[in-house]
Structures are given as structure tokens and as C-alpha cells.
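the two lines:
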Amino acid sequence: MKLLDRLLHRQEPPSGEIARERLRLVLAHDRANISPGLLEVLKDEIIAVISRHVPIDPDGVQVTYTEGPRVNRLVADIPLRTERRARR
Amino acid sequence: MSARVVTITSGKGGVGKTTITANLGVALAMRGQRVVTIDADIGLRNLDVMLGLENRIVYDLVDVVEGRCRLRQALVRDKRLQELYLLPAAQTRDKSALRAEDMVRVCNELRESFDFLLVDSPAGIEQGFRNAVAPADEVLIVTNPEVAAVRDADRVIGLIEAEGKGPARLIINRLKPELVRRGDMLDTEAVLELLAIDLIGIIPEDETVIVAANTGRPVAFTDNSPAGRAFHQIARRLMGEEVPFAPLKEPGFLERLFRWMRFEGEEQQ
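prediction for all of em together
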């Protein structure tokens, strides 16, 4: 029924699901006392440090906080600006 | 015999703490328990009007603490039930009129004569909240199935654990089964998973609660309303009984089909 609903009428998930996703993030940040603002600061500093040594794509850098069953972690995803031909 | 002190708190205001305290008091007293409901919301007294006892108050909690009367003199007895009492908050003072050790002392003095002391906490996480939690043997957290209330509940759960008063149990108040079915309200499973806490009751949204607040006669006096029944289930669980959680009433196949057809029809117009 829900699936049919979504196929027929809805582009985005029902609002209850959006609430759940928003809460998941908000609670994670609240519990760790790591705000989205702090993540931005960390991101900027990581970009500054890494790009001093390695060429990176600053727009593609993502720093996220994730809660795991045993350990919570900060994940930094840093795309390198490498030569294309290395792949061939 | 020594009473259990149960504090009802939430973080966010307006989620139903006072309504729940009043109704649990009524439900427990109807089941033969000797109960004192204690209004710890100094300056914003409300539990008295929920119980319909506002005209009978002579002394209050702050009068007791400051020695203007004996504890027994401040207790207002509910004439509708054998063993239900109210210890009212002061209305003209503020939260600083009370300290945590005052609440502990008052509750300890009441313990030997009663089975349950239900403490209605003020909203927030400041001194008033700390006063309400200080005497607690256990804590019930009230939330509504919405983002802001669940977020504040999570914060309070953390504080309760830090105080060594955990694990708290959760009451989900004002759930609308119809909205949940449509996917437009957080369901019980989602809330429990997010907060990682045990459930003690689900109270459905119920208009009779508003009528009850108007008249000062809590819905738990009868069990012919959905909310009234929910309060009695929570009371039984508090008394240690195993009461299964009934699933939300699902509409039958025909009703679903009918609703679906009607929905499709509206879409085409």
C-alpha cells in the first residue's frame, strides 16, 4: 500500500520517514556534541592541511559523523586530484 | 511499606506531563494504591486544575519547606477517591524557592504512609527539573511522536543516566494512528529505536482528554476512552504487571479498500 502510494502520488518519502532521518542526524550530533558547524570547521582545516602536501579537490571533501554499534566515527572523504592516465 | 517515587519529566514543555501525572494518580488510586501527586513546577502550578482540586488549596510545597505548615496540612485529599492526594506547587514563587534536598526530605517524609509519590516535573533541564528528579526512584520520560519532543527527550534521558537515575522508561503521548498509517507521523518503533529506551505506554490522541481538562475530571476515572484505557495500562505496568502492548487498531480490508478508492477519486477531480 505504501509502495503503491509512493509510485502513484509521491515524489518524496512520507513526512514520518523524513522526521526519522532528521532525528537520526540531530541526535547523533547532540550526543557527540559535534555540531554541523564544527564539522564545517574541521573540513576547512583538513582541506588546508592536506592540500599543503597533496593536490585535492576541495569541493568534493566531505566530513561526516556516524554512529556505529560499538564506536562512533568521524569520516573524512577526500577526493584526490590525480592524473587521469594513471588509470589506463 | 515504603512508597516508590516516580518522576514524570520530558525536557520539552507541552507534551502532556501534567495530564499524565494526574491520570496516573487517578488510575493508581482506583487500583487501591495510596498516592500523592506532587506538583514540582513552582510558579506555574497546574496539576491542581487538572485534578479539579484548585479550590481546595490552603498551603503548598514551599510553605512546607519554609516551615509555615506541617506536611500533612498541605496535602489536599481528592474526595472522589479513597487514597489520592495532591501536594500543590506554590504559584507566587519561583523555582529558586526549592532545592533538591528539600524535595528529597519531603518525599522521604511521605514515603512510609503511601505506595506511590508521583512528581510532576517542570519543563526544561534547569533547577526545577533537577529538584523533581532528585528524589526519584524511577523516571518516566514523556514525548510526542515529533522531532522537537524526541530530541529533547534524548537530552533528558542522557541527564537522567548521568544522575544515576536510569534507566528511564518512555511514554509516547498523543500518537495519531491514522497519521502513522499514512506515514506522516513517527511510529512507535522509530521513536524507540532512536531513543534506545524501554517503553511503558502509548497514549493515543483523544479529544476526551481536552474535555477532562475543562471539567477537572481526568479521563482515567472511567476506562471508556482510548486515553483512559492507556493510563490504566501504564498504572498496571507501574504496579509490576505484565501488560502486552496492543498493536494499533488496523482498519479492516473493506475499510482500507473504501478509503483507497475514495482517495483515488479525489485525486482525479
